[in-house]
Specification:
By secondary structure, the chain is mainly alpha-helical. The chain has helices at 5-23, 34-44, 57-70, 84-95, 98-119, 128-140, 149-165, 168-174. The chain has one domain (8-172).
Length: 200
């Protein structure tokens, strides 16, 4: 039996939003406009004290810890330094449907519940090695997590990647960026340390 039109449109919109977040696309039918996405990113990084718009303070702190574990600081800033958690909070509020917002919050709650059950502490208070081990289990969908928990982690990684690579540091310091590209080089030598390119 076919899905009702309204739920089919919502499912399509949610899937396209996730794809857009991973690819940096905005403006496809049913998605938030480019202006809305840029507005969400700008609002999240406007400076000063930050007040969460969708997540609670605890959820925002957990998102910050998770984002930094996904894209840690190396020779370039990590996700925490660019405010990826704040951008994610705004993107969820401005671009996600209520069911997706609820799933995101439920995913955060699941991580906290597992951390408390396994280590007797909230996730952010666990040792770094234990945090990484739990995220590896989450990413693989193995105990103490279940296969369905993988979906949340994939969603989170998509949001973190979008938030990071739309930041100034992500687009210009982690990626190689030429504001005025030069001529075509057909035989460009790449090394293991060559950076990807930011496309504007």
């Amino acid at each position: 039996m076919p899905q009702p039109l309204e739920s089919a449109v919502q499912a399509r919109r949610s899937a396209l939003l996730r794809l857009g977040a991973l690819c940096g696309l905005a403006g496809a039918p049913g998605l938030a406009s480019s202006a809305q996405l840029l507005g969400a990113v700008a609002a999240a990084n406007s400076g000063g004290a930050y007040e969460p718009v969708l997540l609670t303070r605890d959820e925002l702190q957990l998102t910050a810890v998770l984002a930094e574990l996904i894209i840690p600081k190396t020779d370039t800033p990590g996700a925490l330094a660019v405010g990826a958690h704040r951008t994610i909070d705004h993107l969820l509020k401005a671009c996600a449907l209520a069911p997706e917002q609820a799933r995101f919050k439920a995913g955060l709650a699941r991580i906290e519940a597992v951390a408390l059950a396994e280590g007797g502490k909230r996730f952010k208070a666990l040792a770094a090695a234990r945090q990484v081990a739990l995220l590896q289990a989450l990413d693989a969908g193995r105990a103490p997590f279940a296969a369905e928990d993988q979906g949340f982690f994939r969603q989170l990684k998509g949001y973190v990647a979008f938030a990071y690579y739309t930041s100034e540091a992500g687009a210009t310091r982690e990626l190689a960026y030429l504001p005025i590209p030069g001529g075509f080089q057909g035989n460009y030598k790449l090394t293991r340390s060559s950076r990807g390119w930011a496309i504007q």
